[in-house]
Amino acid sequence: MKTDLPTILVTGANGQLGNELRVIAAQQNSYIFLFAGREELSIENEDAVNGFFATHTIDYCINCAAYTAVDKAESEKEHAFLMNAAAVGILARACTLHNAQLIHISTDYVFDGTATEPYVETAGTNPVSVYGQSKLLGEEMAMQFAPAGIIIRTAWVYSSFKHNFVKTMLRLMNERESINVVSDQLGCPTYAADLAAAIMQIITSGKSKVNPGIYHYSNAGITNWYEFAVAIKKLSGSNCIVNPITTEQYPTPAKRPAYSVLDTTKIKKTFGIEIPGWEDSLRACLMLLG
């Protein structure tokens, strides 16, 4: 193998996005990929991170690692902030020190959900949950310590890997005659395979280092969780009855944004990315899940 190929470090390598990047890595020979899960690299450990960067020549660091248990974060605030904020600062400092570009994944939960039109990157943030607060601080850490980096906010992520809404719906539809799904939260589902492809397009475009900053990425189109579930039902051929309910009827420890549609104009224009519609991507994912 040639050793002069650019090297991409993927942290949080065992999550949905990390696994989709593994799929891409196996199909290309233009980059060397280093995949690091918690066992390989504790990103909250500054000595470990600095040691890793010192022993590997890294050109890009895609940080997919995060504490994502939204409801549990309300009672595990310290851990959420450690993984979603402090660890991001550690990675950001290491990237700047070793001349690697940080590509950090953030979330629609940095917004309060009171908007009535898609959120642009410069919209005011106001997270309503501990998870959202920790991710916003992570963005601030990334921008402070790796100003040449890129932050990608995404939403409603699902894939054929790990736990997610699509796989949960398929399981429940198989187990029950009817299910209730919230219908008053609007957003855009994101197929992690599409997001992974977009990240790679950003890197291969050669434009990433001259276009740092915050970007939004989700699949095209607006829906709600109930309509999303109905689409899963139809495409999977389930006979389960899906009933719409309100957020009020389904209380959770963490508050969710009622509206979290992301405007993706900037990422499309800057990097020439074409974004598939959410229904087409859902169909592609369900084909993989059989």
Structure summarized in a few sentences:
The chain has 290 residues and is α/β, with parallel strands linked by helices.
Distance between the termini: 35 Å
Biggest sheet, spatial arrangement of strands: 2-1-3-4-5-10
Q: Please count the helical segments.
A: 9
CATH superfamily: NAD(P)-binding Rossmann-like Domain
Overall mean confidence score, pLDDT: 97
Tell me the number of structural domains.
Answer: 1
Report the major sheet. Answer: 6 strands, parallel
Radius of gyration: 19 Å
Order of helices and strands: EHEHEHEHEEHEEEHEEHEHH
CATH third-tier fold name? Rossmann fold
Helix content: 25-40%
Can you give a write-up of this model?
Strand 3, helix 3 and strand 4 form a beta-alpha-beta unit. The chain contains nine helices and twelve strands. The two termini are 35 Å apart. By secondary structure, the chain is of the alpha/beta class. The model has no long low-confidence stretch (mean pLDDT 97).
